Amino acid sequence: SQQGEEDPQALSIQEGENATMNCSYKTSINNLQWYRQNSGRGLVHLILIRSNEREKHSGRLRVTLDTSKKSSSLLITASRAADTASYFCATDADGSYIPTFGRGTSLIVHP
Amino acid sequence: DTAVSQTPKYLVTQMGNDKSIKCEQNLGHDTMYWYKQDSKKFLKIMFSYNNKELIINETVPNRFSPKSPDKAHLNLHINSLELGDSAVYFCASTTQGNNEQFFGPGTRLTVL
């Protein structure tokens, strides 16, 4: 079944640095979403990018989508310790509204 | 004013027992989901309900039975609990046709 795979599995950076996470998927999609999960909490929606879009911004977040490579990236600029969390991509196959999540990238931002 | 709430937050029980997890959303959404997140953080959809009707059942053992008394509630009943059922269970909701999901805080189930 359709599944997003995040890369890397874990990322450790210093405050102020940029963090880049990648997501690859297998079949054509309607859209791709990024979610954030703080430890012990539920997922929180960050941003959605549609299959006909190539780039989207929201605050310090920048998401790109390359449908020819079936991949997306999430860039967090000027990271903060509060950005420490797991980040998941979710994709839904054409004609479906069922998102399929990957295993996430665990980001640690050291103060 | 929690948007999606789940009870209980923690549930520790013995193998073979039957237990329920409750979920409520006050967002006016018409679609609700149950997800299971394992120890490696893999999040897998279990069920989806739209307007109280089951629309997705993703190869979940029939020991798991969701029940939706109304659009705002989707409860999960689990019979004959097994060790492998230990996980964090998340409820989520959305409006049909909208992809953004709102998640509850999760219920950590531990089966001993």
Structure, described:
Chain A has 111 residues and is mainly β. Chain A has strands spanning 5-7, 10-14, 19-24, 29-37, 43-50, 55-58, 61-66, 71-76, 85-93, 100-101, 105-110. Chain A is globular, with a radius of gyration of 13 Å. In chain B, strand 7 and strand 8 (73-78) form a beta hairpin. The model of chain B has no long low-confidence stretch (mean pLDDT 92). Chains A and B meet through strand 4, strand 5, strand 9 and strand 10 of A and strand 5 and strand 10 of B.
Outline of this structure?
Chain A has 111 residues and is an all-beta fold.
List keywords for this structure.
heterodimer, A: 111 residues, mainly beta, six-stranded mixed sheet, five-stranded antiparallel sheet, globular, B: 112 residues, seven-stranded mixed sheet
Secondary structure topology:
The complex is a heterodimer of chains A (111) and B (112).
Chain A: E1 5-7, E2 10-14, E3 19-24, E4 29-37, E5 43-50, E6 55-58, E7 61-66, E8 71-76, E9 85-93, E10 100-101, E11 105-110
Parallel strand pairs in A: 2-11
Antiparallel strand pairs in A: 1-3, 3-8, 4-5, 4-9, 6-7, 7-8, 9-10, 9-11
Chain B: E1 4-7, E2 10-13, E3 19-25, E4 31-37, E5 43-50, E6 53-57, E7 64-70, E8 73-78, E9 87-94, E10 102-103, E11 107-111
Parallel strand pairs in B: 2-11
Antiparallel strand pairs in B: 1-3, 3-8, 4-5, 4-9, 5-6, 7-8, 9-10, 9-11
